[in-house]
Amino acid sequence: MLAELEQLKARAFSELDVIDNLKHLEEWRLRYLGRKGSLTLVLRGLSGLPLEERRVVGAAANEIKAALEAGLKQKQDSLKEQSLAVALQKSRIDVTLPGYPVNVGRFHPTTQTIREVCAVFASMGFQVIEGPEVEWDYYNFEALNIPRDHPARDMWATLWVEAPEGENPMLLRTHTSPMQIRLMEKTRPPVRAVIPGKTYRYEATDATHESMFYQIEGLAVDRGITMGDLKGTLFEFARRVFGEERRARFRCDYFPFVEPGVEMAIDCWVCRGKGCRLCGNTGWIEILGAGMVHPQVLRRVDYDPDVYSGFAFGVGVERIPMLRYGIEDIRLFYGNDLRFLKQF
Ligand code: DAH
């Protein structure tokens, strides 16, 4: 009996030795230590033996059982360790590899320009506001001293919006100037604001014309505002945006809502005034329209023109990066072409 037990132990251990996975290990456990396992059967059979023999065989069997259980535990541990090592090996990462580049978005050049220009005016005490793109005829024209049927309306090829019978006519604003009226209606002087936004014209597109483009309007009204304030403020804007050494030129121009009206030009930074392609050989580059707010416009919003005066200006947004970077076609801005947009 003892010899048989020794054999059983030897067999069990030699089998255990070559086991290399948990499934076979479990089968091994059942074979020897399970409820119907060989060792279990031996232990159960003890009761049939005479007392003396039972003691000896029982002790040996228990010892073997303990040895097998210890062997089982050891094997389990080493198999688990192995499989962990394999898993780690498989999922190994090389932390020294360079990462994937993250796509970083950016602002559209138009947005960048609006932000830059508005920041310049904000630093001079102007607030930044916005207004509607679908506008009443009243704000876009009438209140700006451009009456119905007046030839001055021809300056703005207009996209009309169909309004119900009897309603006042509506349109897509042809400039940001209507916001001058909306703002003054709502507040009393002092007024200092810039208004960036989309504007629309009923025009064929070409390299310098889009049917949708952006403007930034400016308005300052207070007691004692003069043409000197207009020039100083706009000259400062030009130097901050186009370079400290810029010179400015103001010439008479006509806009119905200002008197006098001016056009502002800056000296060409490519040829420094000598004449080149950028400035069309004139040495000067026109950048905006401006003027002293017309008394008629002030009266319209109940500002007394004998007490208050102001200046206004309107600047085209796309023209600024076009001039700066030599972009030759305004249509590039809204062509949704990443090759173009990613350059800014
Ligand atoms: N609204 C004008 C346009 O679109 C530009 C302009 C000119 C705005 C003179 C002004 C101004 O405020 O004073 O053509």
Structure write-up:
The chain folds into two domains: 89 residues; 233 residues, BirA Bifunctional Protein, domain 2 (2-Layer Sandwich). α1 packs parallel to α4 and α2 packs antiparallel against α4. The chain has 344 residues and is α+β, with helices and mostly antiparallel strands. The protein is built from eleven helices and ten strands. The protein has a seven-stranded mixed β-sheet with strand order 1-5-6-10-9-8-7, with helices on both faces. It has a three-stranded antiparallel β-sheet with strand order 2-4-3.
Please name the defining characteristics of this protein.
three-stranded antiparallel β-sheet, seven-stranded mixed β-sheet, BirA Bifunctional Protein, domain 2, binds 3,4-dihydroxyphenylalanine, 344 residues, alpha+beta, 2 domains
Write a concise synopsis of the structure shown.
The chain is 40% helix and 20% strand.
Shape: rod-shaped
State the low-pLDDT regions, or none.
Answer: none
- Count the domains: 2
Q: What's the gyration radius in Å?
A: 44 Å
Topology:
Elements: H1 2-18, H2 22-33, H3 38-45, H4 51-90, H5 109-122, E1 127-128, E2 134-136, H6 137-140, E3 159-161, E4 170-172, H7 178-186, E5 191-200, E6 212-223, H8 227-242, E7 248-253, E8 258-267, E9 284-293, H9 295-300, E10 308-316, H10 319-325, H11 338-341
Parallel strand pairs: 1-5
Antiparallel strand pairs: 2-4, 3-4, 5-6, 6-10, 7-8, 8-9, 9-10
Bound molecules: 3,4-dihydroxyphenylalanine.
